[in-house]
Amino acid sequence: MVGGSTSQSLSAEVSNLLSCDIIPVKKKYFQDGELHIKIDRNVKGEDVIVIQSTPYPQVDNTMELIFLLDLLFDYDPNSMRVFIPYLGFSRQDKRFEEGEAISVKAIANMISQYDIDILYLFDIHKPHIIDFFDIPVNEITAIPLLASYIKDLNMKDLMVFAPDKGALNKAIDLARRLDIDFDYLEKIREGPGKIKMKKKDLNVKEKNIILVDDIIDSGGTIIRAADILFSEGAIRIIASCIHPVLSKDAVSKILASNISDIIATNSIEREVSKVSLAPLIAKELK
């Protein structure tokens, strides 16, 4: 197993579950800013597993992944399975304005040049991203892990909400696994960068709420959703997501709002990463 710099703890967990060797990656920068990658093992004829997320700084972490793949294939391994728990640039999945690059397609093209046996992605932002790859891709959902963690909290009068219609499928899946009700809020775009939550008839009085989305970035959407739910009588609101991007001061802003806690996976290793993807990865590899 080769664990990239962004997925060190996750790689160690998977390695322990599978009792397999882990190869440390030595990473440094030269004075001019160039990235340098090195491993201390020849993997010729071996079955290699790579785990590397590509969050901020996305360019550096993506290039680290590309350098690792290129290095490892130079040694002619027997097989190569690659896990990208969080795929950076996923929100640049189409041309929103003329002249824009479809950045995640460019990333997919770079990764697809390598003869990877199978690439695993977790809860990708849009399903059509898989079509950008020319190699076998398997999408895994971490919703069952979130459901298991939430179930262990033993919260009463619980309900799942999506902060917008785009996250509704996640809310439905989570609610089904918890055997509870779900609903969603609606967003109205009032202009460039101006989004307003549309009020609906909500029956959340005296309810505990789990807000779920695939990604939480700045936290603006999830905070606005929580404000509405709290104003309608919800007593406790927890934010949950697969990918805790959480840019800048997002965590402090969220926890200073009507949201009491954040539950996320370690697709990006953050202080709120309370749910590990390791069991899902180990299951795929057994």
Structural overview:
This protein is an alpha/beta fold. It has a six-stranded parallel sheet with strand order 9-8-12-13-14-15, with helices on both faces. Strands 1-4-5-6-7 form a five-stranded parallel sheet. It has a two-stranded antiparallel ribbon with strand order 2-3. The longest helix is centred in the N-terminal third of the chain and has 17 residues, at 58-74. Helices cover 29% and strands 27% of the residues. The protein has helices at residues 8-18, 58-74, 103-112, 143-151, 168-178, 220-231, 250-255, 278-285, and strands spanning 2-3, 25-29, 35-39, 47-51, 79-84, 118-122, 137-140, 158-162, 182-184, 186-191, 194-198, 208-216, 236-244, 261-265, 273-275. The protein folds into two domains: 2-141 and 277-285, Rossmann fold (3-Layer(aba) Sandwich), CATH 3.40.50.2020; 143-266, Rossmann fold, CATH 3.40.50.2020. The protein has eight helices and 15 strands.
Keywords:
15 strands; Rossmann fold; globular; alpha/beta; single chain
Strand fraction band? 25-35%
Coarse shape: globular
Topology order in helix (H) and strand (E) letters? EHEEEHEHEEHEHEEEEHEHEEH
CATH class of the largest domain, anyone?
Alpha Beta
Low-confidence parts: none
Write down the Rg.
Answer: 20 Å
The total tally of domains equals 2
Output the strand order for the largest sheet. 9-8-12-13-14-15
Which percent range fits the helix content?
A: 25-40%
Q: How many extended strands? A: 15
The average pLDDT score comes to 95
Main beta-sheet strand count, sense and barrel state: 6 strands, parallel
- What structural class do the secondary elements suggest? alpha/beta
